Every structure is written in C-alpha cells, then in structure tokens.
Amino acid sequence: MSDSGGEPSEGAPRNTNTKNYIVGLGLLIAVVLLWTVSSFLTQDMYDDGYQKPFLITYTNTASFVFYLVPYIARRLWADRWGPPKSARSTIIYQPLEQEIDIDAEPAVELMPSSDQIDRPLTMKETARMALGFCFLWFIANWALNAALAYTSVASSTILSGMSGMFTLAVGRMFRVETLTLMKIGAVLTGFVGVILVAISDGSSDDQPDTVGSSIVFKAATSLPVLGDFLALMSAVFYALYVVFLKVQIREESRIDMQLFFGFVGLFNIVLSWPMGVILHLVGMERFEIPSSHNAIVIILLNMLITVSSDYLYVIAMLKTTPLVVTIGLGLTIPVAVIGDYFLGKPAAAQVLAGALLVVMAFIAVGVENAKPSEGSDLLSGDFVDDGRAQRSRVRLEHEDPLENQTEG
What we know:
Blueprint: H1 3-47, H2 53-62, H3 68-81, H4 85-88, H5 106-109, H6 113-118, H7 123-150, H8 153-160, H9 163-173, H10 181-201, H11 215-221, H12 224-249, H13 257-271, H14 273-281, H15 293-319, H16 322-328, H17 332-342, H18 349-370, H19 387-407
C-alpha cells in the first residue's frame, strides 16, 4: 500500500479518538460538578447528626438497579413486536467501527482471536463483570465514607488522595497506562495540592463524629490508625476498580452500560446487606431510619446523583484513561472552593494554592494523553495506552515467523 493511500486512513480513526477524548473530558467535568453537589449535601446531613456511611453507600449503589427497567422494557418490546429470535440472533453482533485498525496489515484480520477481542459482551459476561465491580466499588466508597468516622478529615483526604499514584501503578501493571515523567510529575503535583488543602482544613479539634457507642466502636475510635487504614484502602480499591473496568471493557461500544449498572445494583442489594448487619451487631453503625425530612431528601437526591454521575463517570473513563479520570476527580477541590465562595466562606490562600496545583495536574495529564503518541514508557519503551495498536503489534509479531517459514 502506498503512502498516499495510507494517509487518509490514518486520519479518520485518529480524529475519532480525539473526538471521543474531548467528549470524555466533558463528561468528566459534569461528574465533578455532580459529585461536588453530592458532597455538600452529604456534609449537611452529617452536620444534622445523621452519619451512616454504610447505609448511604448501600442506598446509592442499590439505585443502580433502576437501570434494569429500560433493559427489561426493551426485551419485552423485542419479544412482542420485534423480529423472531432466530432472525434476531443473526444481527446481534455488528463490527465495531472504533475497533477497526485500518492501517494494519491484512494479516491482522486473519487472526481468529480478533473476534474474541472485539465482540460485544454477552449478558452472562456483563453480569460476571458487574459482580466483580460491585464489590470493588462498594468497598472503595464505603471505606472512604467510614474513614471520616475514625480519623480526621485531613488524614482521610490526604490518604485517599493517593489514588492517583495507585491508579498509575496498577494501570502500568495491566498495560493500560504508560509511565512517563509527565504523568509522574502530574500525579505528584496533584497530591501536593491535596495535601495543602487537607492541612489547611485540618485542625487540632478536627475529630471524627460519633456514629456508634459500643465497646468495639470505642476501641476502634481510640486508634486513629483504623481510619487511616480505611482511607488508604479506599484509594487502593478505587485504583483497582477503575483499571479493572478499562481492562475488561476497553471500548464503550462493547458493553450495554445500562445492563451493567443494573446488575451492579442488583448484586449490591442481594449480597451487601450482611455487612450492614455485622456493623449493626458490633455497634460500629447502628441501623436507624432517618427521622428528619432533610435527611430523607438528601438520601434520595444522592441516589439520583449517583445513578447519573457514576454512569457518566465510567463512560468518561472508557473514552479517556483511568489516570485522567482519577486526577480529574481532584477538580472537586477547586469547584468546592468556588461553591464555598458563593456560600460566603472564602478559602484561605493555602487552599487556593492547592486547588491551583490540582488544576495544573489535570491539564498536564490531559495534554499528555491527548498526544497521538505519548512517548516512550520509562520501563520498556512500549506504547501501551492504545490497546488496539498494542494488539495489532502483538499479532504482527506472532505472524513474522510464519511469514519467514512461508518464504523459506
């Protein structure tokens, strides 16, 4: 194939990837705004005395089950008014335009494993993936909410802010992130910004609020290291679940996101409640139905925000990278600073400096990942952010010996 014939074919997928990347950043900004609103609402509920980390996490995750409603409705409509199942089965799979590597050699298309790599996930595969994601997501969110009950807000914020480091490390292990100096610098810059904000917010009387009264709870709260451990665990599990999704799904068009989140909500309702019983029995979190109208409204609003924001969040991650969305979620800090300003609570200079560092870190990672080619990985020199390019090179490498044998 001549160069003149190859040039146009390279531009189309690259322009598509750039467009998807920009859309992903826009969705991420929307998620940041929604999560900031949720944080203000949750803090208001905590100030009123209703602090139930497990119940809040459980109800928020359970709200995902509503995504099964449109899926079931589509299936019922298809069974009643759609084409027969025999005819429907022949049109379930369609080649994904995003997955076509136009500039690859014809030999790549002959690889039988490409269909296994690019085909849409079945309902059984989607359910299996949702089961694994449910536990990772629930533990990450519950641990972060529970950490606030055992340690200071400053310690919890700093340790959970290490999620960027874990995401970069785990993403590099699974070859969905490149390890570059720019990314390392951006992660460290964002972490320093989080530290500045956390230290400014922290104070000597910044102690956790009481959410239990048993001997077990009092023993736990006497050891702030438990809260620090929960915050660190939240950061680790966050990195695990965000990379887990990127590795398993790879492309947004391979999965029915409504079905996926519907299964997550269903598994949460069925499998997570024993944890609440244990927390109630040991006195770490007594089950209490909210008595105030304010708490009920906030719980319902948080459920609504979770249903929409987490859906958009996963799509944003699939259109960008795990590290981009991880650093991007740090933008809740400058957005919260703006919110506090309009609420009559101007931020200190140290907080403004920290927020600025977070913004700089996000811009640096965004620019680095937006490049068609990021540059050499510090460990191997391989470009691993583009899964399709990586798979193409692997296939070609496997076919070189065959071609040599044929020539021989």
